[in-house]
Please model this.
Amino acid sequence: MVLRNIVKIDEKKCNGCGQCVDACVEGAIEIIDGKAKLVSEIYCDGLGACIGECPQGAITVEHRQAKAFDEDATKMYLATKSSSAQDDLSQDACTHEHEGFNCPGSMSKVFEQKPKSAPTIDAEISSQLGHWPVQLKLVSPHAPYFKNADLLLVADCVPFAMGDFHNRFLSGRSIVVGCPKLDDAQFYTEKLGEIIKVGLPNSLTVVHMEVPCCSGLTHIAREAITRSGVSLGFEDITVDIQGNIIKTETIKT
Model:
C-alpha cells in the first residue's frame, strides 16, 4: 500500500453512460450493474483522464492509501480481456481500444444476407431529407428549418442500420446527427441547447444504437434541454445493430 492519487466514483451520481470507461486506456473502470466501478486499484494510474468524460461529475481523484499502480499487470489484464472478449453487445460498456483490445460496441459483425425487396413501380425510394447540413457540428442554431420543428437527434450509425429510416423517422422532421463516443459531448450539449432555445421545437425525438456508449446521446438531450430553459420532453428510441427498435421511452425533463 502506498499514499497516492486514485480515482473515486460516486455511484449515486453515476448514470452508467460508460464515457469514463471509454476514456480509461488502462481498462480500470467497467460498468457493473449499471454503474461505473473501479475494477482494481492496481489498474488505475490516478491521472484522472476519465474525469473530463463524466457528464454527471461522478468521478474525482482522491489522495489516499491504495495499492500501487502496476503497469505490467495492467498490460496483462488488457491482453486477457482482448483474447476473451465475447461477441456480445449486452456486456459492460465500451472500453478504450488499447493494444489490440476492441470495444464490444465497435466489434466487427457480418449479418446474414437478406433477400432484396421486390422493386417498386418507381424502382427508387425518394430521400426524405429536408435540409443540409445535418451534422450537429455544422448546423446553425438560427437555421429556419429548426423553427418550431419536429426535431430529430440521431446517432450517426442509426440510418445505416435501419433500412426504412427515411420513411419511418426522417419524413417531416429536421435532423441533427452526431456520435456521442467520438465527438465532444460538451460541445453537443451546448449546440443542441442553443438550437432548442432559439428554434423552440414542437417535439424532440432521440434515436440511438443499443451499444452502451451511444446512450450518451440521451444524456446530451437531457442536459441540452436543461441548458435551454425550455420545457420539453422527448421520445428516446433504442435501435439494435440489425435495425430493430428494441426500446421506446418517453423522457420528461
About this structure: Helices lie at 19-23, 71-84, 158-161, 165-170, 185-199, 216-228. Residues 185-199 form the longest helix (15 residues). The longest strand covers residues 2-9. Residues 128 and 167 are 7 Å apart (CA to CA).
